[in-house]
Amino acid sequence: MPLRRAVPAVALLAALATVPALPVTASAAAPPAPSAARTADIRITEGQVREAAPGGSILYPSVTSCLTVTVRLRGGGLVGAHASLFQVPGEYRSDAILPALRRQVGDRRVTAVEVRGAVGAWYPGYLTKAIESYGEGEEVPSPTHPDPAGVAEAVARGLGQPRDRVTVEDVPDGDIRVR
Predict the structure, then answer these.
(1) Parallel, antiparallel, or unpaired: how do β-strands 41-43 and 57-63 relate?
(2) Per-residue pLDDT for 169 more than 60?
(3) Cβ(61)–Cβ(42) under 8 Å?
(4) Is 176:81 a contact under the CB 8 Å cutoff?
(5) For residue range 46-86, what is the model confidence (pLDDT) as tens digits?
(6) Predicted TM-score (pTM) of this structure
(7) Which residues are registered as beta bridge partners of 71?
């Protein structure tokens, strides 16, 4: 039998140091833990557009005079927008929220679009021309009655989706959670 040279202890320790260690509670056969993005709420405040991974959910906090628009994707993900009647500094205006949401969705397959919030406070045209965009002397239209059909049509057009894919629900003030 040929003789083998002994490996110096320093070389052996250096080689072992490059092998990644498993956490104390993990085993090689255990499946990976679900990612935090899949189990945590994605919080979307006024004027923001964000996305939740499949299995995740969206929290729209303090919806009083706002509309929320949630796009359900074929793979189970959610893309949401929190449209505000008045622009929050640094965030999207109401007439920019649907184009931003459409860009975020991209060419992914949409299964449904859910609009929830203060439907009676919204003139559907605010989704194409924000209150802030009216000049001095221009009359800002105001809703005379809740118009869920008009809001649904404006959202469908803004997102390039069929009208029958969009539902609208007037909800009381408070947080809205979509799973």
Answers:
(1) parallel
(2) yes
(3) no
(4) no
(5) 999 999 999 999 999 999 999 999 999 999 999 999 999 99
(6) 0.78
(7) 79, 113
The pair of three-digit structure tokens given for residue 44, joined into one six-digit string? 């979307």
* Residue linked to tokens 């802030």: 132
Pure H helices in the chain: 9-17, 36-39, 94-105, 148-159
3-state secondary structure the chain: CCCCCCCCHHHHHHHHHCCCCCCCCCCCCCCCCCCHHHHCEEECCCCCEEEECCCCEEEEEEECCCEEEEEEECCCCEEEEEECCCCCCCCCCHHHHHHHHHHHHCCCCEEEEEEEECHHHCCHHHHCCCHHHCCCCCCCCCCCCCCHHHHHHHHHHHHCCCHHHEEEEECCCEEEEEC
Structure tokens given for 176: 């809205």
